[in-house]
Amino acid sequence: MSPNLRIAFRFLTAKKRAMFMSLSCTVLGVGLFIVTQATTSGFERFFTKTILGINGAVRIEDKIQDTMRSMAAAGASDSYFAQREGVKYIEGVEEALLIAEAVREFANVRGVSAVVRGNVQITSALKTEDAQIFGIKIEDHVRVSDLAEQITRGKLDDFRDSPSGALLGRVLADRLQLVVGDSFVLTSRGQSRRVHVAAIYETGYREVDKSNIYLQIGEARSLLRRPAGATFLQVSLFDPSRAPQDAAKMEQVLGHGAKPWQEREKTWLAVFRALRVSTMITVSVFTLIASLAMFNTLAMIVLEKTKDIAILRSMGYERRDITQIFLWQAGIVLAIGAMAGALLGAGVTWLVGQVPLPINGIFKTDRFIVTWDPNHYLAAIATAVVMVMVASLIPARRAARLEPGDIVRGTAQ
């Protein structure tokens, strides 16, 4: 142990109660910082997983046009020209197969599914509801979504093997009191089609589970009178975080609008981000209290140890040695507080992860969702280091400026 560190430890033990308060606040600050970030990030990541499992990482839709004309798109009576955000589009993807093959050439693409979407009315024996049908090729769609894992009743193979089968969301099935095997009628554009419930799925996103119906793509084309093309292509990526960059490249190469999931869900992501920042600021109050306590304690030590400082300076200790002695005191408290705070944060995070918490709205879970991320621990410790060391620097520099002669004469400031 170096002489400076030994002296710092002796000074530190002279103020046990004050140092314990600073240490306690540091432990609480680091621990609570970790816990709050683990919970808010956990819910955000679970929401992201849910969204990616429903809508994929990128959606390709609407052909980009250089000019705008108020006329029907050639060969597609139900598509039309539109203008959004200063960019001109033809709605839909006419050459869906060709575009899908081109998308598969991108290195980060895991799967592509062409989807035909339309509004319908669904009528059971009891009531009628508005809904949306999604015509899919099931082999492609299970590669870009979690639909296979979301089936709660029935079997996906029954949907795959039955042209007239449909997949209903749990909320919609409950509202219409439909079970697997029941038949119902879909109505769109003046024509009706009777299909049956092949299976029931649940994503946990209530808005999806109460409105989305999956049909075989051929059945959806027939009902919506759309013999070719697709409404959009749903794309899954190996690395969803790169969706904005990949979407920009796809839009440039393919000539179709490509929207990443970060843009589609920017409202909810902003909410989670604001929640994470607000909790970070709130729990940092404990670290701020620790830094103020450290400042006060070191300032008192400087006043009480002026004679000791004079002796040290007379023995040849330089100003930087005196500064180091006082910064070592803050460093000792920080080291112990950071280690104990990290252990506290890990323990409480594990306990919170066991707490029952039924949620069914924008996602479904039956317990608190937490995430284990080393960056949370690094951020918590870094926050404590910055606050406590900055607060400790002022009394440390004041102690270093004390001169032995001024102390003896009683004129030290």
* Contiguous helical run count: 16
- Strand residue content: 15-25%
Number of domains: 2
Which strand order do you get reading across the main beta sheet? 4-5-10-7-9-8
Order of helices and strands: HHEEEHEEHHEHEHEEHEHEHEHHHHEEHH
Name the average pLDDT.
Answer: 82
* Strand runs, count: 14
Choose one word for the global shape. Answer: elongated
Largest sheet: 6 strands, mixed, barrel
**Distance linking N and C termini:** 31 Å
Low-confidence stretches: 68-77, 79-84
Residues in helices, as a percent range: 40-55%
Q: How would the blueprint of this fold be written?
A:
Elements (H helix, E strand, L loop, with lengths): L2 H11 L2 H40 L2 E8 L15 E4 L2 E4 L5 H8 L5 E15 L4 E9 L1 H4 L5 H4 E4 L1 H6 L3 E5 H7 L6 E6 L2 E11 L4 H4 L2 E5 H8 L7 E6 L5 H12 L1 E5 H4 L1 H39 L1 H9 L4 H34 L3 E5 L3 E4 L6 H28 L2 H6 L4
Parallel strand pairs: 5-10, 7-9
Antiparallel strand pairs: 1-3, 1-11, 1-12, 2-3, 4-5, 4-8, 4-11, 6-9, 7-10, 8-9, 13-14
Task: Walk me through what this model shows.
By secondary structure, this protein is α+β, with helices and mostly antiparallel strands. The protein folds into 2 domains: 191 residues, no CATH class; 205 residues, no CATH class. Helix content is 54%, strand content 22%. The strands form 2 sheets. A 6-stranded mixed beta barrel has the order 4-5-10-7-9-8. A two-stranded antiparallel ribbon has the order 13-14. It starts with a helix and ends with a helix.
